[in-house]
Amino acid sequence: MATTLSAPKLTAFSSSQTLQTLCKRIPISLYPQSPSSPFSVSTARISLLARRASLSHRHRFAARAESDNGAEPRRYDFDLFTIGAGSGGVRASRFAANLGASVAICELPFATISSETSGGVGGTCVLRGCVPKKLLVFASKYSHEFEESHGFGWKYEAEPKHDWSILMANKNAELQRLTGIYKNILKNAGVTLIEGRGKIVDPHTVDVDGKLYSARHILIAVGGRPFIPEIPGSEYAIDSDKALDLPSKPEKIAIIGGGYIALEFAGIFNGLTTDVHVFIRQKKVLRGFDEEVRDFVAEQMSLRGIEFHTEESPQAILKSADGSLTLKTTKGAVEGFSHVMFATGRKPNTKNLGLEEVGVKMTKNGAIEVDEYSHTSVPSIWAVGDVTDRVNLTPVALMEGMALAKTLFANEPTKPDYRAIPSAVFSQPPIGQVGLTEEQAIKEYGDVDIYTENFRPLKATLSGLPDRIFMKIIACAKTNKVLGLHMCGEDSAEIVQGFAVAVKAGLTKADFDMTVGIHPTSAEELVTMRTPKRKIRNGSPPEGKDSEVKAAAGV
Amino acid sequence: MLQTEEIIRLNGIYKRLLSNAGVKLYEGEGKIVGPNEVEVTQLDGTKIFYSAKHILIATGSRAQRPPIPGKELAITSDEALSLDELPKRAVVLGGGYIAVEFASIWRGMGSTVDLCFRKELPLRGFDDEMRAAVARNLEGRGINLHPRTNLKALVKTEEGMKVLTDHGEEIIADVVLFATGRIPNTKRLNLEAVGVELDKIGAVKVDEYSRTNVPSIWAIGDVTNRMNLTPVALMEGTYFAKTVFGGEPCKPDYSNIPCAVFCIPPLSVVGLNEEQAIEKAKGDVLVFTSTFNPMKNTISGRQEKTIMKLVVDAETDKVLGASMCGPDGPEIMQGIAVALKCGATKAQFDSTVGIHPSAAEEFVTMRSVTRRVSKPKTNL
Question: Catalytic residues (chain A) (predicted)?
Answer without folding.
Answer: 519
